[in-house]
Design a protein that fits this description.
This protein is an alpha/beta fold. It has a single domain, classed as Glycoside hydrolase/deacetylase (TIM Barrel, Alpha-Beta Barrel). It contains 13 helices and 12 strands. Strands 3, 4, 5, 11 and 12 form a 5-stranded parallel beta sheet that branches. Strand 4, helix 3 and strand 5 form a beta-alpha-beta unit.
């Protein structure tokens, strides 16, 4: 029986305008929660050894040879390495504590954050999900190839990449996939508010998504970099989920995702720390409300929401004298969310972030602190969203339904839940 009171997500005073006020090129998602905390204490987590998964059903058996696809931008090089083995829970077995860290945008810019966090994941026995914005593989000179819904040809709310950044991002995408990380999608032009994803029809989402596929599958044609190696994955098989910009448009997006056979969507604007459910057959992986350190409200588990509470949603570089305190508060708040479910329901814990230097980069540092703190703990598995879907699909749906009835901080008698 769930006892945690459900509360409506409320925008903090002044933050409701943040969608319109954040400058072009800033890609934060804008939902901010200020609700009563559900409570919960501290504790520890596993990281299982990676084992290769099976080849995609639509690919012929792997013969050990690279199969180049299309214009040579992508290829099939066999099952993705470093995927964790999946097993059905045994009667009475406590579930692992899953932690999913995801990154919106996934550009390797001058700050080299993509490569940095790829290394952080490797050093901490973790996989992560990198949600690639498709236009990050499209040169500015070819921007007219992008036809965004409800906007002019070549328009984008984020900047097109430099040629050097395209090459660097391609290298990181290849290495991330080989590390076992997931390459999802953040779609393309990052439009929010009026004319953004919340206003799009399912057909418009289908157009946006097919263009995201195209920019990955045809980067050689679009860039002219024919001497570079192909990406080591077939994007038609690799892409199984995404996150909509600004967490807008899930209602009309999910039918498009279902039609494409995607397995999950991470575009929900937030929920309590509950075990996931499916929406029309697609796993729903929302950002989560977690207890804000030292305050009597909860915040969504994404960097922009901390920014909005600390320096204000339209002030991405606040008072530097407060950075150290804000960093500690952010880290402690993320750990509050982790500890609540680790010692309680074991609901998967989802953290979203951006490669942004907001408030001196403290939000990226907070995520790094959390990864280093929790991913080596007993029973913790730091995985990608795709691996999360693999595990959930292997479980008895009746067991998942039972788990979903638990309060986040409720540690049950597992023998009565897992039967």
């Amino acid at each position: 029986m769930r006892t945690t009171a459900r509360t409506t997500i409320l925008l903090l005073s002044g933050v409701a305008l943040a969608l319109a006020l954040v400058p072009s090129g800033v890609t934060g998602d804008r939902s901010v929660s200020a609700s009563a905390p559900a409570g919960g204490p501290p504790a520890p987590s596993t990281g299982g050894a990676g084992t290769p998964g099976p080849a995609s059903a639509s690919q012929p058996p792997w013969d050990g040879k690279t199969r180049v696809i299309g214009d040579g931008s992508t290829s099939y090089t066999g099952p993705q390495p470093n995927q964790r083995a999946v097993a059905k829970l045994k009667p009475g077995e406590k579930p692992p504590q899953f932690v999913v860290v995801s990154w919106d945008g996934a550009l390797e810019g001058d700050d080299h954050m993509f490569s940095h966090f790829r290394q952080v994941a490797k050093e901490n026995n973790a996989q992560m999900t990198f949600f690639l914005s498709g236009i990050y593989l499209l040169p500015n000179s070819k921007r007219a190839l992008y036809h965004p819904p409800q906007h002019g040809v070549g328009d984008s709310a984020i900047d097109f990449p430099t040629n050097a950044h395209i090459k660097d991002t391609l290298a990181q995408l290849s290495q991330a996939w080989e590390d076992g990380d997931e390459i999802g999608t953040h779609f393309n032009g990052h439009f929010c508010g009026q004319g953004g994803g919340g206003d799009w029809s399912t057909a418009e989402w289908e157009s946006e998504t097919q263009q995201a596929y195209s920019f990955v599958e045809n980067w050689k044609t679009n860039t002219g970099y024919t001497n570079l190696p192909p990406l080591p994955f077939d994007y038609q098989q690799e892409l199984v989920g995404g996150r909509a910009p600004c967490l807008e448009g899930q209602k009309t997006l999910i039918p498009a995702e279902k039609a494409m056979g995607w397995r999950y969507d991470a575009s929900s604007p937030g929920d309590f720390q509950l075990w996931p459910n499916k929406i029309d057959g697609v796993w729903n992986f929302p950002l989560q409300e977690i207890p804000y350190q030292g305050q009597n409200f909860q915040v969504l588990s994404m960097d922009y929401n901390f920014l909005a509470n600390q320096s204000g949603g339209d002030n991405v570089q606040g008072d530097p004298s407060k950075y150290a305190g804000w960093l500690k508060t952010t880290t402690d708040t993320y750990l509050n969310g982790f500890e609540r479910v680790y010692n309680g329901s074991r609901a998967p814990y989802f953290i979203g972030n951006h490669f942004e230097d907001w408030n001196g980069g403290i939000y990226m540092q907070a995520v790094e602190n959390v990864v280093k703190t929790v991913c080596g703990k007993p029973d913790v598995r730091c995985v990608s969203f795709k691996e999360m879907a693999d595990w959930l699909d292997a479980q008895d749906p009746k067991v998942i339904a039972q788990l979903r009835n638990l309060d986040p901080g409720q540690a049950p008698d597992w023998s009565t839940v897992i039967k």
